[in-house]
Specification:
Elements lengths: L1 E4 L5 H15 L12 H5 L4 E7 L2 E9 L4 E7 L8 H13 L3 E6 L3 H9 L3 E6 L6 E6 L1
Parallel strand pairs: 4-5
Antiparallel strand pairs: 1-2, 2-3, 3-4, 5-7, 6-7
C-alpha cells in the first residue's frame, strides 16, 4: 500500500470516499445534507495524504499543519480493515510530530475505538448536545 500526498487529479475519488464514508457512518446527519463538494470546503488550507493500492484510492487524511491537528481521516467503506487508516495515522504523526490532536464525534463509537486501540487518549468532551465530540491526543 502506497501513502502519498494527494494531487488535484485525485479529488474526484477523494470526494466520493468522503461522501460514501460519511453516509455510511454519520447516522446523526441526514444523508441529503451531504454533498460531494463538502470535501473541498472541509479541507481548505490542509495537507492531504492518501492511501492507494493498485491505483485505487482507499482513504485519506487531512492535516492542519500549523496546529498539529488531524482534521479528517476517512477510509472507503469497502476498504475498511485493510490497514489504510493505520498507515495514514502513522504518516500524519511523521509529518506533524507529537503531540498531535484530533476531534472525534462522540456518537462515532467505531472511530473512537479505532483511535484508542492505537494509543490515542480522549482528553475532553466538548460541544453542544447532539454535536458533542472528543478531543484526542497522541504523544
Amino acid at each position: 500500500m502506497l501513502i502519498r500526498e494527494a494531487k488535484t487529479v485525485d479529488y474526484p475519488q477523494l470526494r466520493e470516499i468522503y461522501l460514501a464514508s460519511r453516509r455510511q457512518s454519520f447516522h446523526w446527519v441526514k444523508a441529503e445534507d451531504m454533498d460531494l463538494h463538502d470535501f473541498d470546503q472541509d479541507t481548505q488550507e490542509e495537507q492531504i495524504f492518501l492511501a492507494e493500492e493498485n491505483n485505487k484510492i482507499l482513504g485519506f487524511i487531512s492535516l492542519y499543519v500549523p496546529d498539529r491537528f488531524i482534521h479528517l481521516l476517512f477510509v472507503h467503506p469497502e476498504a475498511a480493515g485493510q490497514g489504510a487508516g493505520d498507515l495514514l495515522l502513522k504518516q500524519a504523526i511523521k509529518v506533524l510530530g507529537t503531540p498531535v490532536t484530533l476531534k472525534c464525534v462522540s456518537d462515532n463509537r467505531n472511530a473512537l475505538s479505532f483511535y484508542q486501540k492505537r494509543g490515542w487518549k480522549a482528553v475532553v468532551e466538548e460541544g453542544e448536545p447532539g454535536e458533542k465530540y472528543w478531543v484526542l491526543i497522541y504523544e
